[in-house]
Amino acid sequence: MQTELLTLLLICLETISQEIVMVAKTHSTLLIKYMDYSDAAVLQFKIPEDVHFVSFKFEAEEIEESLFRCEPNDIDVYLKSGSPPVINPDNSELPKHFLNYSGPIEELKFTSNKTCHYINVTSPYAGFYFAAAFIAYTDPRLRAITQQGLTAKCLTVLNAELWVIKKPRPYIIVPEKQEHVILHPRTNRIFKFYVSDYTEYVILHMKKIKFCVDCTKIKLRVQSHRIPNVNESLYSMDLTKEAYDTKNFKTQIMTVEDSWYYVSFNLDSKTDSEAEFAFTFKCFSTYPSNDTQLLFSNETKIFPLNINSTRYYKHSILRNYASPYLHLNLSYNQYNLVREGSIENFFYSFDLHPDTDGSVPSSVNITNNDMTALKFHINPATDIGGTLQFSLAFKPRIRKKGAAREIGEESKQVTIIGCLRNNGKEIPTWPNKCVLDEKETIAPIILNRTLKNSTVYVPFPDAGNWYATFKLFCGKCEPCECTEKCRQELNSCPQKCEMECDSVNLCNSCIETCENDIRDHKACSNCNCDGPCLKASDSCNASVLFAAVSFPCISGKCGSNGKCVYLISEGVAYSVCICTNHYKGWDCSDSSGANSKGVILMELLLLVLSNVVFLPATYIAYRRGYYVEAVVYFSTGFFSSFYHACDAGENIYSFCIVNLSVLQFSDFFCGLLAIWVTIIAIAHLPHPWPSICHITGAILLSFTTTINKTAIWAFAIPFVTGIIILVASWCCHYKRSKARFPSKRYQCIIFPIGIITVAFGLLTYAFLQTNSNYMYLHSMWHIVIALSIIILIPNKRSFLPASVESSE
């Protein structure tokens, strides 16, 4: 279905003379099952500028590396722009105070059956897109423990391609230069302009609009950072013929500094008639263009501009229409922070500009009359792989009391609301909201007398400009009872002034007069609002301390149940936590899958104490004269006990006498050697062949165990070889003695019971073990193997026939 839709889309695009081209391709990226973020393959795709449409094509397949057939796996792909996606496929809890701010994450689920699947994005952001791909997560407790050689060995690989449509390209325009546009039906005319660091908003002015006879409306769309589309744009206006034919149109566009803005025009017409108009735009700034000294100042100040300048004076920075609660002009102080790097990966911080004496200010003074904004820049690639940590706190009020000093308390009625956002200044509003473009979110930072500091964490922060905005509120919130009519006047009047004025003095005078006239009316006398509250008559102030720092993982660590690691996948560098003890989550704090200490202790005791059964096996082998075998059985129980004492216990009750890898080798080697010497003992070889087989087997088993201790062939080789030797030896004894060998009792009773016991243990070990039942079944495996040794180790009275026993 998706393939048919893409084909149809390509046909449609071809008919309108647009071209889709492939710009990037990755091949054979290996995928593994998701346990934590380190298992995800992170891919990056660079999207060119001015792209209308992009399609990410994914195809997964299974590569067979054994005789068994591979079944398709479920594949998950998560895609987002700016930084790797923050995901939790295991449904683990994100840490407290996590601000998972990121763009929309596209999710794609499919199977690895060589079928193509697509993620299509209209009007994508320019820059890097990141995809996290992996085999779908399943509960590890229910996952089977398989043995190499008994199941299919498969490689799951992912192929990805990036296709884009770049035509038609936008036309670059500059401020105050009039552009004449002839608009054809069912086509887009796209323009783009650059907003400098100190531009706060622009006025777009369309003049001499001429509709054709059959034209119905002109669609105007404005978007930042990317080309606008039908379903999503920052500003969207439909200019109808009835309202705007032969007339002018103006609109105000709030802008984000240091960004490209795109404007598109589209004509609705029943025929091929054309429409035409001219348009221009003006930039309004809070900075004088010739004030270079201001670039090194911490505080944003508003100065009059030269009337002949191409930038115009702005009475206020953030307009009331940006929030449904604001009905006043809100000014703010902006501090451009300085980045301080480090040689450690993903560790950097931001500070205020140094003062003239070289000292760095440690605090910011704020009042309830203004908002404060801190601006800092996250670099692409090098800065996005850690966790951004932003902290805000009241600066202690230190008072002198004689010769002593004491810390004073903050006022009960003082509250600071803080916001943190990428590529946009959010407005803090009472009681706990952040507002941008009329969209509300819960404020991540709130300070008051009882909560004097607060910290938020942003994992994998998007590249670009970040703004931390906060505002001081004092007094109680008294509802601002402003009528709807007054609200509309306050919303429209200042904007109208700014769009009509052509000089500094006229702008300033018009806005102030308009605001005062509205509030002088008796019906609007209560409209002096600060958000949903009446603006406090009292003024208050405070000093705050802040910290904007990036660390790998979470503050450089992952708690007591994980470790922080650095990873590079397809050229993307990032840091993640690898959890232990069955913990999960971004900082390994989610204990929903972890065992209790009682269960952990029981697991340790079962796996260790089950090896005690090897002591009776050792004693019986010694009593029956099998001294080499007795040493091997004792070593098997000894190393298995200490291996599980080190491996189990989940680092809580673990005890390691040497390195775990040494104990693991010793455990597997002694286990295989125990199988080998037991078969040689049952074979009843004449002297000196038992010694030769023992030393030869020990050498070969140490070699195979070093190569791969868990492969099925490591078990099969000594078992099959030993059975061949056993059968050959029994046949030789039979031919030599002309009597049944071994005894009828051993052949018909003891040997079958022993073989059934061994088979039961092997089937349990190879096919029934899972992560959840491992401690039970593996402990049973220890007991079954030790019991089989006790049963099978030959007893001359029951093993040898009477004729052979008398001859020996």
TrEMBL record:
Q: Give residue ranges for domain EGF-like.
A: 549-589
Cystine crosslinks? C579-C588
Compartments, as annotated in UniProt: Cell membrane
Predominantly, its location class is membrane
Cited PROSITE patterns: EGF_1, EGF_3
Q: Which residues form the signal peptide?
A: 1-17
What GO cellular component entries does it have?
Answer: plasma membrane
Note one Pfam family from the annotation: DUF3522
| Alphabetical UniProt keywords | Cell membrane, Disulfide bond, EGF-like domain, Membrane, Signal, Transmembrane, Transmembrane helix
Q: Does the keyword Cytoplasm apply?
A: no
Annotated membrane topology? Multi-pass membrane protein
| Annotated transmembrane regions | 598-619, 651-677, 713-734, 746-768, 774-793
Coiled coil regions in record: none
- Please state which protein family the record places this protein in: Belongs to the TMEM8 family.
Q: What is this protein called?
A: EGF-like domain-containing protein
Q: Which organism is it from?
A: Photinus pyralis
